[in-house]
């Protein structure tokens, strides 16, 4: 799973330039076939997707985001533990209000 996260991060970095211009990056689902293929590539030993040539592939920003969402969904524990959720949310809202008041 750690390798999947690293490779998803690497793929996201490669697509980051255009991802900001793509509407609904995490809202719109990627192609089921391409997302499944990409996830299979990340889970296949021994390289776990490290040798994937992003320049020659046809994966979209939505495909990569879908794999990342699947990864987060299948984690055994949430990224933000349930006991800390309200504290993190209050902190987020506080920072958001500070940014919007600039």
Description:
By secondary structure, this protein is mostly helical. The chain has four helices and no strands. It has helices at residues 2-19, 32-43, 61-73, 85-100. The mean pLDDT is 82.
Can you give keywords for this protein?
mainly alpha, 102 residues
Number of continuous helical runs = 4
Order of helices and strands: HHHH
Average of per-residue pLDDT values? 82
Helix content: 55-70%
Question: What gross morphology would you assign?
Answer: globular
The radius of gyration is: 16 Å
Which percent range describes the beta-strand content?
under 5%
Largest sheet: none
Helix/strand/pairing category: mainly alpha
Say how many strands there are. Answer: 0
**Any low-confidence stretches, pLDDT <50, length ≥5?**
none
Distance between the termini: 39 Å
